[in-house]
């Protein structure tokens, strides 16, 4: 049993598939001159371009809505990284102020350097 969303996606896929087949059939250049291709009228070509532009607008709208719904997540993640960077900077500055008079600790030398 198919859900409503799957039926809608299948319908869109079928429409896009039919449109692609129509466009490829019209612009197909066949090397065999014995096969007579149908001529397309200017009104038919305009309708074809209108259908292509309509399908591209619908796909663009879908992409826009996906981006529109994901944008709060992107902004939230960006703000989280900004806050963590700010917190890290504040901790480095605080550490520098709190330990300003203590001598820097030298790293212990490796044992092979004493040879």
Which characteristics define this entry?
single chain; 115 residues; mainly alpha; 2 helices; elongated
Summary of the model, kept short:
With 115 residues, the chain is mostly helical. The protein contains two helices and no strands.
Account of the protein in words:
- By secondary structure, the chain is mainly alpha-helical.
- Helix content is 70%, strand content 0%.
- The chain has helices spanning 4-27, 42-98.
- The chain is elongated.
- The model has no long low-confidence stretch (mean pLDDT 78).
Range of helix content: over 70%
Mean pLDDT: 78
Give the total of beta strands.
0
Give the SSE order as H and E letters. HH
Oligomer: single chain
Between the first and last Cα atoms, what is the distance in angstroms? 79 Å
Cα-atom radius of gyration: 32 Å
Give the uncertain stretches in residue-range form: none
Structure class: mainly alpha
Main sheet properties: none
Number of helices: 2
Strand content: under 5%
Q: Which outline best applies? A: elongated
Record the SSE blueprint.
Layout: H1 4-27, H2 42-98
